[in-house]
Design a protein that fits this description.
CATH class: Alpha Beta
Radius of gyration: 13 Å
Strand content: 15-25%
Organism: Bifidobacterium myosotis
GO cellular component, one term: cytoplasm
Number of helices: 3
Keywords: Cytoplasm, Phosphotransferase system
Largest sheet: 4 strands, antiparallel
Number of strands: 4
Shape: globular
Order of helices and strands: EHEEHEH
Subcellular location: Cytoplasm
CATH superfamily: HPr-like
Helix content: 25-40%
Protein name: Phosphocarrier protein HPr
Distance between the termini: 27 Å
């Protein structure tokens, strides 16, 4: 499993808007990404699954891809390419989507 651990930057946590933005970005990677928090796991391509985890701002989460079950987006991808996609997703989670200038970050 290739993972990244990140502190959620959105001051209000992963509520509807940041969860939807993140889920859309995950879908665009074509990878089967999981999001883990407090022993629970969610499909990171589902905003509802993400919101169900109840992740508050400043909490730490882990995103990961099992190379053996990485999905269509990983068919020809190397471990480095998958890692690079996870790095981009981790950077998204570290942003504060509730900030005034957040629209410019997306």
């Amino acid at each position: 499993m290739i993972t990244r651990t990140v502190t959620v930057g959105s001051a209000m946590g992963l509520h509807a808007r940041p969860a939807a933005i993140f889920a859309t970005a995950v879908e665009q990677t074509g990878l089967d990404v999981v999001l883990r928090h407090d022993g629970e796991e969610a499909d990171a391509a589902s905003a509802l699954d993400i919101m169900a985890l109840g992740i508050a701002g400043g909490e730490t989460v882990t995103i990961g891809v099992d190379e053996g079950k990485a999905g269509a987006g990983a068919a020809d991808a190397t471990v480095e390419a998958i890692g690079a996609k996870l790095d981009g997703l981790a950077a998204m989670l570290a942003r504060d989507f509730d900030a005034v200038d957040a629209v410019d970050q997306v």
